[in-house]
Amino acid sequence: MKMEEEDNTTAVTVSTDMDLKKGGSVEYNGACTVVQAGFNLAADRGDRNGPGNRVGTGIRVLKRNMKRNGSRGCVTRKTRFGSRERDWLKGDAQRGCVCLYGGTVEPQPPSSGPQTSSTPQADLRLVLCSTSTTVEELCAQRDGEGLYLQLHGDLIRRLDPTERPLHMVYDYLSALGYKEPLRVQREAAHSDLSCMIRFYSERPVNPDQQERTLLKGVFSVRKGKTQLHKWAERQVILCGTCLIVASVKDSLTGKMHILPLVGGKVEEVKRRLHCLMFSSAGPQAHTYFVNFDTLVDYQRWHRQASKVVSQTVSLVDLSCYSLEAVPEYLFYSQDITHLNLRHNFMNLQGPGGLLNLPRFSQLKSLNLSHNRLGVFPESVCEILTLTELSLSCNGLHTVPQQIGNLQSLQTLSLDGNHLSSLPEELGGLSQLSSLGLSFNNFPHIPSVLERLSAVDKLAMAGNRVESLELQTLARMSHLRNIDLRLNGLRCVRSETLEAVKQVTQLDLRDNRLACLDLSSACSLETLHCQRNQLGALTLSGFTLRALHASSNRLTTINIYPVPNQLTHMDLSRNLMEYLPDWVCDSRKIEVLDVTHNLLSELPARLLSSLSLRKLLAGNNHLQRLPDLLDHIPLEALDLQHNKLGELPESLFYKALNLKYLNVSANALETIPPSSQSEESLSTLQELYLTGNNLNENCAALLVGHQNLRVLHMAYNQLLSFPASKLGKLELLEELNLSGNKLKTIPSTVSSCKRLHTLIAHSNHISVFPEILNLPEIKLVDLSCNELTEIQLPDSLPATLHELDLAGNSSLMLEHKTLNLFSHITTLKLDQKPAIAAGDSAGSSTLWNHGYSEMSGQRNKLCVSVLAVDRFGDSVEAAYGIFDGDRNEEVPRLLQCTMGDVLSEELQHSSVDSVYMSNTFLTSHRKLGMAGQKLGASALLCYIHHEPSELVSYFSLTVANVGSCQAVLCRDGHPLVLSKGFSLEQSTEEMERVKLSKAIITEDNKVSGVTCCSRLLGCSYLSPWVIPKPWVRTEPLYSQDEFLILGNRALFERVSYQEAVCTVQAVRDPRAAARKLCTLAQSYGGKDNVGAVVVSLHIGEDSCTCEPPLAPTEPRGPPPAPLPASITPGDPATPSSSSGIASEFNSETSASEVGSEAGSTASDEQPSSGLASRPERRCSLHPAASLCGPMVPGTAPGPPHPVLFQRQPSCATFSSYQSDNGLDSDDEAPLEGVISNGSKLEVEVDIHCCAFQLRSGAPESPKDVVLDKRGSDYPNGKMRRQNSVVVSATNGCLLAVCGREISDLKKSPSTSSLFGKKLSNGSVVAPEDSHNLIEVALEAPKKKSGYFTAPAQQDPEDQLVVPPSLEQDVREQLKGQSPVIPGPPPPSTPPSNRDLIWDNPHPPAPLLSQRDLTPVPAPAPAPVLQQEVYDTAL
């Protein structure tokens, strides 16, 4: 197999384990040497697993220098793989290479500041081998002692001589999800795979670990506080809990003085330099003075000794140190009582092996969990003083009989093993009170538990107990707490009437129970039975205090007698049509959750309860609430998603303790008054009224709630908000008035001094409210309004970090205003519409999108969006959403790289399940060190062609991991395309995780970290959490209206059907996405919310063929360019008429760019390779016809590619001396470039390379700036001319130096996303326009990020047409017909659905007659969707 070489060089930073954790890189001093070793395979290989068929031992060493890239040492792909290596890989898919990293690291002396990374001494070796090559063979050829394996930058394990490194890599990649052997071979050769699996030729030494494990040295020592003893050079050791001083200077053979330090003192001796005094505890304390040679040694010893003396018990924590044995000096610390060896690789044999642990005579607690022991260490049974022993997650299959020797044992943890039985000797441990048997293979409850009378909790979650006999529990009278969740329980039987009197807590969550009768458990206090299949539930109510039975099929619950001790009951997500009578009779019930049921009414006695504090009854069928007769202590009431037309009149002055009320998504037309008199006693703090029919008259009724902090009145019928009423809500902190008909926000909002969030999008507000003088304002969202200008104070509050002004088409921002916004973290502005008939890309007639992200009550936004309306080289699209839950790094990285990866994978495979899976797996690898501990849910949607012999149609391929979901609206109904990978949603994933022996905590999280079983990142949780995605392909039909992408926080609050209905009711995809997020927050969501709405216009007559590429001929008529109008602009003022020229600011010198421009002269035909590509056809266009971009009303003809090239500086274009060897008559005129021989300087910033020419009427011949114009260069192909590459993607042109193209990689996320990485993780908008303002103002914050751009525009960066040449430009532009790229619009009238999705803004007028040849106006006229851009300032 031929190894594919990427365009860009892949940097491999050789780092130690410490370097990985710190995220730093190591620089090389001088040229580093790569030693590549290959085996001489002279003989043919027979059976790979048979004896005597080993690889030959001949070795050839190839020394090569490592290239430098910037300040980081790296190894390029070309340097590491030559023809010899590729020939080796071609021979067999079982061949490959293993990267061996040198492990010797010299610890650097610590300073007073932060610790710095160490520099590796050894080099990186590439060893060619096969899957049958063992560690022993590799070590024999390199005279090494062994190999070490590190997974995910974590622990380091010594490999056994018989283990096969390459086979381990292949198995690891196969477990991730790679299927094809050749692809596994190629992935194994990737150097950045080392962040997940890495081999060392020597054990890496971590100085920090060594310091905490053992400190030793030869120093001047004096014993005692008196001057009778003299100073002497002695070897001093600090290990464990003791200070060890040898009696001989250079030897440990003499008498050893042991000084216990726990509870003692370590003090600085001020009269001597670098001297410490160590004292033991007790009345007969001993003292040693140690004088260190350097400050570094002094600080290191002082730091470690201070930790020891501060302990209250003799504890030694050696967990997570990759230890194979206990340090030998530790055995001198005979006072150790607690030893933690968790997460190591302890051996049985050796001086510090487990066989020597009985030497600790006072050891009480021993933790050996996660040590891959495989067998129970019998030597542990000889430590008779043990009271606590943990052997969890060690792959144990049996427990020896010697366990009976540990008569003092009180706690025994055996979770996460393969145990199916226990020895009878275990029953003799009379003091054993805690026994952990969770996540083993027990088919039933072990009978030995009957003899363990001190054990009060049965912890057997995650076993294989399918049937439970209550009489078995009755015989174990000592058991109080039973945990049998995740067992696959199918029945709980009681063959006799014998009562089970001792069980008080029973956990049966996540089983398969269809009915449950626990009436014999008369002492039951707490029952957990969530997520079963219960249709009937019978309980005893004598002592019942808490009942959790959500997510079942219950229609009623039988409890006898009335549970008068019941305080908490959760019956949500069931099928209950009414509440049982005993619920109202319960005297102490405080919390009742009956959400997501079928309730049509609530009993009057329930609301009159004198104990009820919290009532959650949302998502039911309630039409009215009973009146309140007496004062009630209710504090929280949730009635959202019902059919309420009114609330009880006495609600607020009878429920004086009410602090939270959510009545969103009802049919309310008014709200009750806060009191019966003018004086109100209301304590209401949070009020959610979103999605009702309230008008402005309700505002007067809110005045009485003086303590109101949060008010949501979005999507009502508010025409105004009375100024006098708003000013009285002085404690208001969050106000949401979105989706109403407001024309202004009252100026009295300035009285709300505590207001930090104002959300009022999707209104008709024309005047910016007076909120920027509020001292605590943080977020202002006034998008999708009618703002025209902003009146700003002299200075803005420092707390303001997000301002959303998108969707205000008439808003004009001056340069002074933008300067005031410079400190805002996230500024969202709308690009002005480009008025051009030719700007409509082919994809815009088929789909367009809108997105929204809201941080909620989080301090940071951990959701990112990928949106590419024109993906790749044809009419395709890609959309994605990434949710990092608590981290923002991984979503940002996925946003920036996943489009690139998908584009690469499409070149290797056309099978949807293959290229989508590989896209996720490769993105997982590319996360590098960030993906070791952090992860994110990911969802990627790809709209593409599915050509066949007769027809060509569009398909939608969806892939996801984690909790992000995709919903397609088909005929008005939701079609879920993704699969949720949380443990609660997927029983298959739960079984897979259980089989891999993961510990699932009670909140259903893997190792207590995440509830998702598949994520990108979090590689340290492998194999429990994997990156393999779910993939589904769905053909798109004319009935498909739109696509919704959302994260977990969205679909937890908004159902699929409601999301579809919500989007259908909104005209604009962007406004629809904002509404979805607003609803999720108003329904109680507190986390980050993200939504993407993609409007689909794929009819039966939609053209799906792609425009053909005409071959470039040396002679012939030139293609007609699209005319560009000329508009004036002030170079110093970024306005709507200033064009986009200031986006091009060079990061390299003019001479450096100019040198690259000189290589544009060539005799090559740059597009000859692209012209030979076969054309795609559709059912409407036979193969003989040319399907090109057409303008309605124009005659058919060949396509007219627009070749507007912005060349590097000092590039001269002349009509008489062509740069490409063509005569002027044969050369296609370049739009926007003067071809009269004058020189044009254009500096190009490759990081801000998206631009278009706007059109408009010229006002002045002076400082004329060419406007933006979309290019219809066929299919957005990238055209290479030696070192200058010109790309047209998504209607925008990309001009970069050839030596930089390896960074951009011709990928969607660079040529379509244009390198836009925002500080808040928001989407890189890849639309037909690019905002000048966001480029000019984002740059100052990006000096250390992915890209750097100048902060302000330079007048020299403008494209200036001299007045004397203006007429020549006009002459060239006249007579040229505009070309609309993409498929022609359908000839049939638009459907009702298409009208709904039309842009609500009026269509842009056509270009003036003086600039364009008259073109018949298309019907309907093409309308450009205005896009939102997030600007991180």
- What's the total count of β strands? 64
Estimate what percentage of residues fall within beta strands: 15-25%
The helix count comes to 28
| Cα separation of the termini | 48 Å
Radius of gyration: 36 Å
Helix content: 10-25%
Spatial shape: globular
- What kind of sheet is the major sheet? 24 strands, mixed
Mean pLDDT: 74
Which structural class do you get from the secondary structure elements?
alpha/beta
Q: Low-confidence spans: pLDDT under 50, at least 5 residues? A: 1-79, 105-122, 834-841, 1104-1359, 1377-1433
Write a structural description.
- Helix content is 15%, strand content 20%.
- The protein has 28 helices and 64 strands.
- The relative contact order is 0.06.
- Mean pLDDT is 74; it is low at 1-79, 105-122, 834-841, 1104-1359 and 1377-1433.
Topology of helices and strands:
Blueprint: H1 17-22, E1 33-39, E2 59-65, E3 68-69, E4 72-73, H2 77-80, H3 83-91, E5 95-101, E6 124-130, H4 135-142, E7 148-151, E8 156-158, H5 165-176, H6 181-188, E9 197-200, H7 207-213, E10 214-223, E11 232-239, E12 242-246, E13 256-260, E14 265-268, E15 275-279, E16 287-291, H8 295-309, E17 315-317, E18 338-340, E19 365-367, E20 388-390, E21 411-413, E22 434-436, E23 457-459, E24 467-469, H9 470-475, E25 481-483, E26 491-493, E27 505-507, E28 515-518, E29 526-528, E30 536-540, E31 546-548, E32 558-560, E33 568-570, H10 581-585, E34 591-593, H11 604-607, E35 614-616, E36 636-638, H12 651-654, E37 660-662, E38 686-688, E39 710-712, H13 723-726, E40 734-736, E41 757-759, E42 779-781, E43 802-804, H14 815-820, E44 826-830, E45 847-854, E46 863-868, E47 877-883, H15 889-908, H16 912-926, H17 930-933, E48 935-947, E49 952-961, E50 965-970, E51 973-976, H18 987-995, E52 1016-1017, E53 1030-1035, E54 1040-1046, H19 1048-1053, H20 1056-1064, H21 1069-1082, E55 1089-1096, E56 1126-1128, H22 1150-1157, H23 1168-1171, E57 1211-1214, ...
Parallel strand pairs: 1-6, 5-9, 17-18, 18-19, 19-20, 20-21, 21-22, 22-23, 23-25, 24-26, 25-27, 27-29, 28-30, 29-31, 30-32, 31-33, 33-34, 34-35, 35-36, 36-37, 37-38, 38-39, 39-40, 40-41, 41-42, 42-43, 43-44
Antiparallel strand pairs: 1-2, 3-4, 5-6, 7-8, 7-9, 10-11, 10-16, 11-12, 12-13, 14-15, 15-16, 44-64, 45-55, 46-47, 47-48, 48-49, 48-52, 49-53, 50-51, 50-54, 54-55, 56-59, 57-58, 59-63, 60-61, 61-62
